[in-house]
Amino acid sequence: MAGRLIVVSNRIPTGDPSGGLVVALHDALLARGGTWIGADPDPSEEGRDRLHDLGNVPYQKRAFRLSAAERANYYSGYANSVLWPVCHRRTDLVEIRSEYRADYLAVNLRLARLIAKELGPQDVIWVHDYHFLPLATMLRSLGVTNRIGFFLHIPFPNITDLDVLPRPKDFARWLAGYNLVGLQTRRDVARAFEMFRADPRAEFLRDGTVKFEENIVSVASFPIGIDSEQIEGIAARADTGPFGAADPRELIIGADRLDYSKGLPQKFEAFGRLLQGRIDPQARPTLLQIASPSRADVAAYQQITSELQAISGRINGRYSELDWQPLRFVHRSVDRERLIGLMRRAEVGLVTPLADGMNLVAKEFVAAQDPEDPGVLVLSRFAGAAEDMKGALLINPHDLDETAGAVELALAMPLAERKCRFEDCLQVVRDSRISVWTDRYLARLASCVPTLSLAPRASA
Ligand code: ADQ
Q: Residue 453 domain-assigned?
């Protein structure tokens, strides 16, 4: 690609890049040169009519500012109280307010104008996630014909759930403004195709692309991964436990953002079933659930926190002994190296989302294992990661007995089977490593049919 790469994501890294996605995009920008644009962590409301420099070395970082009302309406509102629940099949939690949608569109339009002002003819734009669905249509309406790619990190919604959105038909039109729509799994692609098939404005072309009014869009899956080599390295030298003399014999670990999509009440209840059905009273499994606080200003997140505190209190009240607390619910973020050490120490990784784009924790757990004595991954079928990770014990998190049974099986699994399953999973983790994901996506975007002419629209 001759021009610059311009990455757009709501969160922009400040300081040293950390975390899989941020590091991967950082590397892509280092290799190709370019600009990363995201929401300014500075809450100042001044200067919303321009991009602010957050540093120019080794690539440009530029930020757009939001007013307090825009943060509430565009970010906590439309993105996290409308689009997030719709994509995660929780239409019961959707909160529709006209100001949410108005500010979502206003922020996207302002950003489109700011980007268009500085765009070179050969620049390629890569937009990340549901905060910016309409950005391409808005850029097109400003005359931009550059290649624009989009990647959705969360599940593609079910076609019937889309009807819950205000003006549901916008969703397909917004996506069609991109040259390439990248999704996590083949199932996501199938759902996107179902949406286009049901839309009279769309026509499938012989090469598999979709013609939608004046646009041609490609849709494909690019399962995201982790820097597996780095995690394998950290795990090999990690401190594997803070427990000291109280080191549990059987450790089950969960690590998630505290989000209702992660199936945490189901995980706790399934663990309760496991304790209830214990045949050997000497067996004292411990579930360590580390849940990083998330979106605490949204009501649904406050409710799930109280619910989890209540369930863990009930389970611990019923089963704790003087020298054993079966469920440890740690409501905070922990240092990355410590988390990887805990994953290596655990006999079981328990990942139970009810809907999840990919779930990187599942891949991190696998990469963190000791190849000579690996733990077992128990993984929800509803995580994108389950599409390829056939070496995991796959469960339906709504079925508490099935989850409890899988954990029991994992705790008793002979070494030979553990190794065999681990090797299968590790192969998937390595094949989908983050550098491969970035390269595959950008190569595919470069080969997409370019947007040649535009029929500008007055508004998105
Ligand atoms: P998330 O919903 O945030 O990501 P996930 O993919 O599991 O979910 O990534 C979470 C990251 O945060 C992991 O790197 C994990 O190690 C870390 N983390 C989780 N709990 C932590 C804790 N308590 N302390 C410290 N770190 C913690 C969204 C989508 C996913 C998709 C990713 C990437 O929802 O489906 O896989 O983007 O595309």
A: no
pTM of the entire predicted model? 0.96
Do 47 and 176 share a structural domain?
A: yes
CA end-to-end span of the chain = 29
Indicate if 356 belongs to the active site. Answer: yes
**How far is 204 from 217, CA to CA, in rounded Å?**
10
Q: Which residues contact 187 (CB under 8 A, 6 or more apart)?
A: 384, 387
Total domains in the fold of the chain: 2
pLDDT tens for 117-128 read 999 999 999 999
Question: Residue 279's pLDDT is what?
Answer: 76
29-77 residue pLDDT tens: 888 889 999 999 999 999 999 999 998 878 899 999 999 999 999 999 9
What digits encode the pLDDT tens for the residues 13-31?
887 766 667 878 888 888 8
Residue 50 Cα to ligand 1 middle (Å):
31
Condensed to tens digits (0 to 9), the pLDDT of residues 192-243 reads 999 999 999 999 999 999 999 989 999 999 999 999 999 999 999 988 776 7
Domain, as residue range, for 299: 228-432
Could you tell me if the CB of 361 is within 6 A of ligand 1? Answer: yes
154 touches ligand 1 (CB under 6 Å) = yes
Residue 451, pLDDT score: 81
Q: Quote the CA–CA distance of 118 and 113 in Å, as a whole number.
A: 9
Please tell me the distance between residue 8's alpha carbon and the centre of ligand 1 in angstroms.
19
Whether 227 is in the pocket of ligand 1, judged by its Cβ within 6 Å, is no
Exposure letters 231-250 (e unless 16+ CB within 10 A, then b) = bbebbeebebbeeeeeebeb
The reply to whether 320 and 189 lie within a common domain is: no
Of ligand 1's listed atoms, the one at least distance from the Cα of 335 is: 25
Task: Indicate the SS3 state at residue 243.
Answer: coil
Cβ proximity of 47 and 20 under 8 Å: no
Residue at 257: amino acid letter: R
Write phi, then psi, for 89 (nearest 5 degrees).
60, 35
Q: Whose CA is nearest to atom 33 of ligand 1?
A: 153
Does residue 458 sit within a domain? no
pLDDT of the residue at 448: 92
Bridging pattern class, strands 348-351 and 250-257:
parallel
Distance (Å) from CA 398 to ligand 1 centroid: 21
In this prediction, residue 390 has a pLDDT band, given cuts at 50, 70 and 90, of very high
**Do 129 and 170 belong to one domain?**
yes
Task: Let me know whether 212 and 199 are in one domain.
Answer: yes
